[in-house]
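Continuing the batch. This is chain 6 of the set; chains 1 through 5 are on the previous pages. Same settings as before, nothing changed between runs. Recording input and output for traceability.
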Amino acid sequence: EKLKALKQTQPSTNSSNPVVVKDDAFSKIKALEEKFAKLENKELEEMTGKKMKFLDLENEQVAEGIVMSIDPKKIVMGRPIGHVYCEVSIHYANKPDAPLFVKDDQRFRIKDAIGSHLLWIRDYVLVDEAK
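Output for chain 6:
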């Protein structure tokens, strides 16, 4: 019903007279998504080089270290970082046997990755606010 109501508020189009609307609801949603992505990237850029906590899928801390890069084109562990991951360096293992999100031939668990650069899912990186 909400979709029907939304459609009724939008100008109708037909193949002989297409209407382009700049401020329709779909354009606004897309603009909001783009704004959110920019804010998220800015926040991650500000985290680069700072002490961070790395979480597992259960949101439990498994390691500490720093974010090295969020450049989506940079190659880490043989693949581009993209928009889901960030490059991190693990300095301390809270749970040494916890699995990594992205594994390679030498690194399967947190303890294998201490001191090296690897990929970590951005949504599982938090600022370490310990003083």
